[in-house]
Amino acid sequence: MFALETIAHRLRQGCQTMSYPDGPAPALPDRHGGALRVDSARCAAGCDACVPVCPTRAITRLPGQPVALDLGRCIFCSACVEACPPHAITQTNDHRMAVRGRGDLVLGKPGEEEVRLAAALDEKLRKLFGRSLRLRQVSAGGCNACEADTNVLGTIGWDLGRFGIQFVASPRHADGLLITGAVSRNMELALKKSYDAVPPPKIVIAVGACAIAGGPFVDHPQVCNGAAAVVPVDLFIPGCPPHPLTILDGLLRLLGRVERRLPP
Amino acid sequence: MNATLEFAKLGNATSLPWADVPEWRADEFVAATATELDRGGRLCAWFGVPEGDGTRLVAVLAYDTDNTLAVGRSAPVKGRYPALTPRCAQAHLFEREVWEQHGLVPEGHPWLKPVRRDHGAGPAVGEFFRVEGREIHEVAVGPVHAGIIEPGHFRFQCNGEEVLHLEIALGYQHRGIEEALAGGPHRATLSQMETVAGDTSIAHATAYVTVLEALAGTEVPLRAQWLRALALELERLANHTGDLGALANDVAFLPTSAACGKIRGDFLNLTALICGNRFGRDLVRPGGCRHDLESVRAVQLLKKLRGAVAEVDEAAAWLWDANSVRARFEATGAVSAEQAVEMGLVGPAARASGLVRDVRFDHPAGWHRFAQIPVAVWPDGDVLARARVRWLEIQRSGKFLEEHLAAPPEGEIRAGAGQPAADTLAVALVEGWRGEVCHVALTGGAGRFRRYKIVDPSFHNWTGLALALRGQAISDFPLCNKSFNLSYCGFDL
User: Fold this and answer.
1) I want to staple A182 with a disulfide (CB 3.0 to 4.6 A). Which of A128, A140, A210, B315 is the partner?
2) Cβ-count burial of A21 within 10 angstroms (0-12 exposed, 13-18 middle, 19+ buried)?
């Protein structure tokens, strides 16, 4: 009976895997807001209302300078969006926000209102990893939310395996690391050893505000303020935690499997 | 001897002046605490408060059947005091923690070693309990594990396949949360509370704001209390569903594993429907909630909830029907009711050993004062029992949500938070999906935190996992581990 019921259920359910990236991306929750955009030209002179409301001190405004918002530190609470009377900081509802360089997450200067999305790996690495990427996940002071939403990519809805991307049990089997957490001092050595155990050439992906910059724990003496303090990072995926769609977009972008942002 | 002194009684989510907390000499305080625990009290928290060049010990106890909490403290003590652990084993990690944080030596503690401290090379460097013998071998696992999972170190003493003893060394995730709270609340405090254990954001955030509200005497609007209770059950549904899937996966029963992995995400998306974040970040705020659940949204939520619950129903039915699953779950990793009481286990792990122990029922606060959920209990203490308790709770949480989504209280969603009172102690317990989340705050003269103690349910329950492994095949460790599914970061803080 069980076997029959299971087969019947499967037929009823059909294929559960989303059509993205061939089809449209699933919608973000309407209250999510997506990546932020900073139009510092709209900032009122001398206004720094957004600066003190940011829990992770991701926003700074030096005298005479445009406001600078570091999306790497951002935990997407949107307190700054609410605090900004002239709407210089706005939500774009865009899930895409992975970048290659840490500086590409800093918003505010003219021409740098939004994140500068990640370029693909160079030709040689794309040839190696483009259709088969094995990652070792290392949680180093993570709260289990980034870990959970990375795990989600392995479920039937997302099916990361269809892109040839897989999480493996040992760094020896891996092409790179996917790191979550602020990198606690107590995990520093284990992270270094895991990195060293990955055979070159290798890539490192930092997922979440903690792994990029320490997140809510930035500047605690017990953490290293993110993965880049310990190992070189090739891809930064912001969020607290990033939506699975944001993580997937980042991975595919790195492998050159989704288009770069089209010019407006 | 202060024979006439009694612990100060208080309810969950209330506060009392620090001066009203009765004080004993340290040795008498340990004896008085032991007497209370022998009488059926339970240790929710045991921690130090520095004062002058000494440290006061503070105990927060729960009398579950009387629906009350109690608190007592010692006079400042330096150097050493007679340990509570030899009389009450549930204090063992608490006393190690006090020793680590304040340097107070609990004399007579049978296994005094750090809880989270780094020795420069990771927390697991140091002495481990060893079994000696020609056939005995030791297996060391972690900190980095095979799956997408947090780090921790497990040290097994084995005779062949059989585990004689398991010692668990954690601390890898230590981010200094309690230390940072001194002098708080700070700008980042709420987001730190939401990430104590990121899969328990609603429970920890609710405990935190409840403490603040108790300190300030804030009356939280009913509608906000209602919404917090709904979010708490959604958090439970997502995690319990994920756990059923993970348990199925560990016995290679893929239909349930595949289905539950997806349905878990559906539940997370329901939380995101309320606040935009799948883990409930930025929903709970001091004085209320940040977002409302308008009726249109509530209708949408209810419809999706029904669909997801029906799907778990089906996926779980396959699990219970399969003989191969029952064979692996039954009698694996059993923890007796006596052990569960002795070690002070909480949450589904305690209820699976037959204990009727649930904050929502025993110490109702917020919305649970008006709406309780029957306590889900299973008697056997094994992996099957822990799975069955989760299953019962999924059903009951689903019913609770159906019922309460249909009857929302009207009104505001947020009140002014108010200023925390000075020199006051407040306690909040919340039944998170893993069990009792306990937050205790003590304010100083300016109403800022002088000491803040967080006890994640995992702090009580890791010892339960170690006990469950005794006499088991080491190959059953992943299954036993999954049946507890404890938090590393919640323990490490």
Assistant:
1) A210
2) middle
